[in-house]
Design brief:
binds nicotinamide-adenine-dinucleotide; alpha/beta; about 290 residues; Rossmann fold; globular
């Protein structure tokens, strides 16, 4: 049978999550997505009204089919973790079973198992502030939603992942090189994610034969990136300075994810794969 993928962090057709879903679908995988609860309504409405119809088109002319959309808030592991004001919030009250543990249980109930787990989500409430001006709250909130969320997702999905399965997250060069503008602790968040990739590759590899890799992606005009505000500058910088002078398409990252999730990458785990037109190789701008 074909493989089944769960992709956390899809709420429109602009981001890396959507592109990864498409590349996996083009390779024959069944697609399940996890959508942030506050974004769920508008995402489902857009899907229903055909707003993303053109974006569903796969290279062979067929259309991507999203088998099921699960509400998800990756900041909460179990229902006991959810504060009262969030539970009663208008945007949350309309959905149920959206903590990580419950989503894993629902996927298990619906489909039994998955083969591929993708983490394509991040949130840093103070991303526009320099680290020196970031509050403890902002820093920890960023780590919670962008780094620990991957640890928790893997922890809860591992029991339903078939041996030989693969998981992938998305990281950014700011983890290892100073990139002004990527603030609020988001650089720290990506450093944690990359380090955790190694530790989790060992633990999930030994215990469950599951591979864990992360893609260090170049700049893309996604919703999240536009919120940071400096993405156009980063795209221009890359065009000027990267070995490959072309704009990076989300599809190129999607295709790299499909490769990492496939048997072609069966000996690759614990790595950071750069999909950035080679910008990471440069020491100085030219
Ligand atoms: P995006 O806006 O498409 O994706 C981010 C998603 O995270 C959104 O769908 C949002 O709803 C979701 N999200 C936020 N908080 C959540 C939570 N608590 N629970 C569940 N979902 C939540 O933007 P993107 O840029 O495609 O981001 C995907 C990944 O790619 C992120 O990890 C990001 O850091 C990484 N990345 C992006 C770029 C870039 O330039 N866009 C570069 C390198 C890495």
């Amino acid at each position: 049978r074909g493989k089944r993928a769960f992709i956390a962090g899809v709420a429109d057709d602009n981001g890396y999550g959507w592109a990864i879903a498409k590349s996996l679908a083009a390779a024959g995988a069944q697609i399940l997505v996890g959508t942030w609860v506050p974004a769920l309504n508008i995402f489902e409405t857009c899907l229903r009204r055909g707003k993303f119809d053109e974006s569903h088109l796969l290279p062979d002319g067929s259309l991507m089919n999203i088998t099921k959309v699960y509400p998800l808030d990756a900041v909460y592991d179990t229902p006991e973790d959810v504060p009262k004001d969030v539970k009663s919030n208008r945007r949350y009250a309309g959905s149920s079973k959206w903590t990580i543990k419950e989503v894993a249980e629902s996927v298990k109930e619906d489909f039994g198992s998955i083969d591929i787990l993708v983490h394509s989500l991040a949130n840093g409430p103070e991303v526009t502030k320099p680290l020196l001006e970031t509050s403890r709250y902002g820093y920890l909130a960023a780590v919670s939603s962008s780094s620990y969320s991957f640890v928790s997702l893997l922890k809860h999905f591992v029991p339903l992942m078939n041996p030989g399965g693969a998981s992938i997250s998305l990281t950014y060069l700011a983890s290892e090189r100073m990139i002004p503008g990527y603030g609020g602790g988001m650089s720290s968040v990506k450093a944690a994610l990359e380090s955790d990739t190694k530790v989790l590759a060992f633990e999930a590899g030994r215990r469950h034969r599951i591979r864990v890799n992360t893609i260090s992606a170049g700049p893309l005009r996604s919703r999240a990136a536009k919120a940071i505000g400096f993405v156009d500058m980063m795209i221009d910088y890359s065009l000027m300075n990267a070995p490959l002078q072309k704009e990076l398409s989300a599809e190129e990252v999607g295709n790299a994810a499909a490769f990492l999730a496939s048997p072609l990458a069966s000996a690759i785990t614990g790595t950071v794969l750069y999909v950035d037109n080679g910008l990471n190789a440069m020491g100085i701008g030219v």
